[in-house]
Design a protein that fits this description.
single chain, about 475 residues, alpha/beta, five-stranded parallel beta sheet, about 45% helix
């Protein structure tokens, strides 16, 4: 474990060395923020202990630590409150106690075990927030709802939560609610007694009994019929089940993790999903973002998939060139991580040891993909700059498309078709040329609108904008909105 101490306090520096040097620990001492930032950017630092006054330098260290070594933590020694936009992992007050720092180190070790033992990969801020939340809920027994598109890894995260929970010694039983016919799902979940229906020649226990002491993963929960939803809700409330055709209630001790690619709130509004069950399952919701929203994780995922496949199958592989990786990062990945893994395996098998270049990549991807139509990957730029550039380009493309549609309508010689009375026709009027805003002005306006829409709730505003809370806090400070 490497501990970086940024302090001019000679006594504190001596204490840190005596407490943690040796025994597998290594302490690096520096007095200023700039040398500390350089060290964070160059290598793995497990814990940064900050004892300085420049809040700007502290914020930069927090940002770079998460980018270069997301498993690590940053702790600030402060006599007052650390500004909310500086996302430290903890604050310590003087006098510093060794046991307090050891708790942070243990959390670093636990986080590393959680990620490595379960094959969870991702350095992006979005995925780190997912992993951190999953680690927090793993120790509890609450119901968890995993949401996200198909192929984002909901099943892997569910297994990771189970593996890191007090139930790890118990069974983990996944069941795909969308793959079971409606007529069979209740017997699959709760079992049946002999003679309960035609063909029931013996007793059979359901997955709730089989998973006693462990975890059930209900994948595609949005596909579950309403009749089964009622019984599932009763089981979650009473912790008891009754087999079909049975008269005896059976106690079960099971944790439920559910997952869906549907918008369950909309399903509730449309009457397809029970509202009470929705809130019962959604004690904690973890939304896994689509791969296209964090392309910076693609090289790490590709490396892991390549290593796994060539070791398992003992196959040669010439590697992937830098320009080929950029093409992979531009691709929208409708199938998300699952599709990426399949593409990597296809590359290894079909390339026959040849190095993959940019011109080779399209043949392994969806035939509809046109590299020239995708937005360029921003290289050599900060994440903020890349994010603003991509947003701005999309807005410009949308504006251009709307302008072309408008021109087409104005040039149309024939009369408009008949419109029903309910449709209001608005007369065309000449508008003044619209002022073009800078990317910073557009971004600031978007943040202000999100805050107004959420009543100032920053967590909800960040979710609405599709960015992490830490990113939002940083932008609030940048634009003087904090």
């Amino acid at each position: 474990m490497t501990i970086l101490v940024v302090s001019r306090d000679e006594e504190l520096r001596k204490d840190m060395v005596s407490w943690f040097e040796g025994g597998g620990g290594h302490v690096v001492l520096t007095e200023g923020g700039r040398p500390a930032l350089s060290l964070v950017e160059r290598g793995n630092v497990d814990l940064v202990v900050w004892d300085g006054r420049d809040v700007g330098e502290l914020e930069a260290i927090c940002r770079e630590a998460k980018r270069h070594y997301p498993k690590g933590m940053v702790v600030s020694i402060s006599d007052g409150d650390v500004p909310s936009w500086v996302q430290v992992d903890g604050v310590l007050e003087r006098p510093i106690v060794k046991e307090d720092l050891e708790r942070f180190l243990e959390h670093v070790r636990e986080r590393e075990r959680f990620l490595s033992e379960n094959g969870l990969i991702g350095r992006s801020e979005a995925m780190q927030e997912v992993f951190e939340t999953a680690l927090e809920v793993a120790h509890t027994d609450v119901q968890v709802l995993l949401t996200g598109e198909n192929g984002t890894g909901k099943d892997m995260l569910a297994k990771a939560i189970h593996n890191h929970s007090p139930r790890r010694e118990g069974p983990f039983i996944p069941i795909n609610c969308g793959a079971i016919p409606e007529s069979l799902i209740e017997s699959e979940l709760f079992g049946y007694e002999r003679g309960a229906f035609t063909g029931a020649t013996g007793r059979r226990i359901g997955v709730f009994e089989a998973a006693h002491g462990g975890t059930i993963f209900l994948d595609e929960i949005g596909e579950m019929p309403l009749s089964a939803q009622v019984k599932l809700l009763r089981v979650l409330d009473e912790r008891k089940i009754m087999r079909i055709g049975g008269r005896e209630q059976i106690s079960v001790d099971v944790r439920v993790i559910a997952a869906t690619n549907r918008d369950l709130r909309q399903e509730v509004l449309e009457g397809n999903f029970r509202r009470d069950l929705y809130y019962r399952l959604k004690v904690v919701e973890i939304r896994i973002p689509p791969l296209r929203s964090h392309p910076e994780d693609i090289p790490l995922l590709v490396q892991a998939f390549v290593q796994e496949y060539i070791e398992e199958h003992d196959m040669p592989f010439g590697g992937i060139s830098e320009d080929a990786m950029e093409v992979l990062m531009r691709y929208p990945w409708p199938g998300n991580v699952r599709e990426l893994k399949n593409v990597v395996e296809r590359m290894i098998v079909l390339s026959k040891g040849k190095r993959i270049t940019a011109s080779d990549v399209p043949q392994y991807l969806d035939e509809r993909f046109e590299p020239s139509r995708n937005l360029p990957v921003a290289t050599g730029k900060t994440p903020d700059q890349a994010e603003r550039e991509l947003i701005y380009r999309v807005l410009l493309e949308v504006r251009q498309e709307l302008s072309e549609i408008k021109d087409l309508l104005l040039r149309r010689p024939e009369p408009l078709p008949y419109l029903p009375k309910e449709v209001e026709v608005i007369e065309e009027h000449v508008e003044e040329p619209e002022e073009i805003k800078t990317m910073e002005e557009m971004e600031k306006e978007m943040i202000q609108r999100a805050l107004r829409h959420t009543g100032g709730n920053r967590r909800k505003a960040a979710k609405l904008l599709g960015i992490g809370e830490r990113t939002l806090y940083r932008k609030l400070h940048k634009y003087g909105l904090s």
